[in-house]
């Protein structure tokens, strides 16, 4: 297993796109990433990718986290050319507990996924949290994680970390792996209005057992499913929701 750590600040939409150094470094990192993926593929290894900010949509601003050209370049690598060796992607930045799919286009059957971990910082109305991932060493695939959190209301003067949930228990499935198919299945449950327990569990988890923000199901579903802005907006229009 290969762990690739990226500095996505160079791909972020707030990076100084007029700065030659930033642009040069952003492109150099893509060249480095492709070299690492090519080497891993040649050696028959699986890859985990981790960084701070994820690709995809910011549902508060309805804009992409990364510059569009960088999002496209990244997705072409991890969903297109090297999708068979990507075991998963681990990101943060959102201060939310969430999941994201990645498709090259809305009709493409090839897909990858990212797990968005909540933050240790209580900013943006959430309890501090962290995760412990579980890996199947035989097939080199993610299978589960335990999430722990600190409830800030009763935490002082003695802070206590406690179990929040285990993914496989909170979101049970016949799929024993934590992969793109599993996140796709979970994504579809967002539109299953008959499954009220799932919706409540998911909505409360996003803020790590803090008072949840209000986001319509359509927004959360489309942001989880589509990494590109145009697909996200078409999804929202299809579901007849206007922001």
From TrEMBL:
Gene3D superfamilies: 3.60.21.10. GO terms for cellular component: extracellular space. It comes from Desmophyllum pertusum. InterPro entries: Metallo-depent_PP-like (IPR029052). The keyword Glycoprotein applies. SUPFAM superfamilies: Metallo-dependent phosphatases. This is Acid sphingomyelinase-like phosphodiesterase 3b. Keywords: Glycoprotein, Hydrolase. It comes from the Eukaryota. GO terms for molecular function: phosphoric diester hydrolase activity. Coiled coil: none annotated. The gene is SMPDL3B_5.
């Amino acid at each position: 297993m290969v762990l690739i750590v990226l500095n996505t600040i160079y791909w972020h939409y707030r990076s100084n796109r007029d700065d030659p150094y930033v642009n040069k470094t952003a492109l150099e990192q893509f060249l480095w990433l492709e070299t690492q993926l090519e080497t891993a593929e040649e050696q028959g290894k699986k890859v985990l990718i981790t960084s701070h900010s994820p690709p995809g949509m910011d549902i508060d601003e309805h804009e992409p986290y990364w510059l569009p050209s960088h999002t496209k370049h990244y997705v072409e690598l991890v969903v297109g050319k090297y999708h068979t060796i990507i075991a998963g992607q681990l990101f943060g930045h959102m201060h939310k507990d969430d999941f994201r799919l990645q498709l090259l286009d809305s009709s493409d059957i090839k897909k990858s996924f990212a797990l968005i971990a909540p933050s240790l910082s209580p900013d943006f109305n959430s309890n501090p949290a962290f995760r412990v991932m579980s890996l199947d060493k035989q097939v080199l695939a993610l299978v589960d994680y335990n999430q722990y959190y600190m409830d800030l209301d009763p935490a002082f003067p003695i802070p206590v970390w406690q179990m929040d949930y285990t993914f496989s228990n909170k979101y049970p499935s016949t799929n024993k792996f934590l992969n793109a198919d599993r996140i796709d299945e979970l994504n579809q449950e967002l539109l299953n209005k008959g499954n009220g327990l799932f919706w409540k569990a998911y909505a409360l988890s996003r803020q790590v057992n803090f008072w949840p923000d209000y986001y319509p199901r359509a927004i959360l579903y489309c942001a989880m499913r589509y990494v590109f802005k145009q697909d996200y907006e078409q999804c929202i229009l299809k579901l007849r929701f206007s922001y």
